[in-house]
Amino acid sequence: MKCRRCRKPAVIDVRRHNAGFCSDCFLHHCREQVRRAIDDFEMIRPGERVLVAVSGGKDSLGLWHLLRQLEYQADGLYIGLGIGEYSDESRRYAQAFASGEGARLIDVDLPAGFGFDIAEGSRVAHRAPCSACGLSKRHLFNSVATAHGYDVVATGHNLDDEAAVLFGNVLRWETGYLGRQHPVLPAAPGFKRKVKPLVRMGEREMAAYCFLAGIDYMVEECPMADGNRHLGYKAALNTIEERSPGTKAAFVFGFIERVHDRFAPDAEKEREDLAPCTHCGAPTTGDICAFCRMQERATPLALNEPT
Amino acid sequence: MKCRRCRKPAVIDVRRHNAGFCSDCFLHHCREQVRRAIDDFEMIRPGERVLVAVSGGKDSLGLWHLLRQLEYQADGLYIGLGIGEYSDESRRYAQAFASGEGARLIDVDLPAGFGFDIAEGSRVAHRAPCSACGLSKRHLFNSVATAHGYDVVATGHNLDDEAAVLFGNVLRWETGYLGRQHPVLPAAPGFKRKVKPLVRMGEREMAAYCFLAGIDYMVEECPMADGNRHLGYKAALNTIEERSPGTKAAFVFGFIERVHDRFAPDAEKEREDLAPCTHCGAPTTGDICAFCRMQERATPLALNEPT
Question: What is the ipTM, given to two decimal places?
Fold first, then answer.
């Protein structure tokens, strides 16, 4: 197989695009995919400061690298979730990448700063660990971006992630979530704009990008995600994609182009009910936001002392 | 496990309903599920004549049996598709059931009446066999019902079928198909009302119904369906259902209750473009309907001699 762009021998075959690429042209292809996602969905305007949510894995480090390659002013935010050795090691990958690039990494630690870890938050909030974790990350991501004056927050959700989340939301027809599922969530009172520049990149392509770009990342998956429903959705979609390459992209982009608008009012209605959390000021439908409630239950005495 | 209804030992466990049933109560449960589907969606009005599409398999024979148990005036239509021994055998099952019940079975044979079989139709129309078959069955089902003055046509699509079709339509966001996917398709110029009374019944429950009701049915699957995409969708959904019983029902009924209306205009738009086929009179978007075009290509001389 030859490189689609320069005709040299290909090192990777992207079946969805029915194309092979040599190493240099693949890195170029990835940059173009991200550039196109950013342009198509008007994710980042010139001069804006971007905060990238960095876990130490291939997607977030690859995204940070790609944004810097495309000359965006992008800093990183690492959130320590207190998941034992897994957290320690992923922090080391994030820090090593940042220092190698000479990039700024903000480091927030959930146990040190808020007095509880994901296992404890999950227990007291009666939520699955992945739910407590997602809630904490979304909350801190938004509050740190606000505190540090970033214009936009970027996450490393790739095409496979988006397809799996969409599949889960469609299986239960979560109309509010469907109304919010988009590569760009516009800013709103109390919310920074959220963007997903990797929406055109598959999981396997991100792994290849990191390998070919020489990015050292945390390969191990989170030990608490084991048995997570989304892994089942991913497996189901992978089986179908294997047989019909392009299925995931058609699923996600067909939704964005022809279907998302039909659910947008459902999300709008939910947003109208939001008011600032009486403790932290984050938008919430109750008096106290779900993150502060979780913290209160986990560490009743610590609630008034967030860092 | 005990029967939910009479506390005798259960012979079947319906995980989705978290309930076990003894043989008699399971048959009662199935009748109630079908009665409820018919009532909820106003499928059949008192005194209406129903034509049931009968393949000889568990779903269509079970449906026919259930409608007769519920005292509907239901006759059967068997369509011979010319798929060798498979067609011969499935016809024998349909005929045996009809004569055992003393019920009327209309028998239409595609090769004998129209001069081509599914393999040939598939070849000349450049369609997958399942597509040529579905097209032929829909066409003949509607035209026979019209010719014989039936009010409504009923098909044996069960919950698993509906979930798999919905999954396929959602993966490609076929907005027109989504607008037509409903347990009742109302009558329209040239179209009889179409209903799916088994929408609340799983595949496994239909097999158990036939077994417990003593209905002898064709177990073998169509040899031409091998590798059909829908089988892949069913397998994917089965894996998810296995882990989260009720997923398929939530997917299908959530769609019907909260989502179908959002796509109905897409189907409406397609219906507006229909006009009678210049050959057979069936509604079509072209001059000649897809069935007549397929017949014309397969047997140019036979086009003017339909039975």
Answer: 0.90
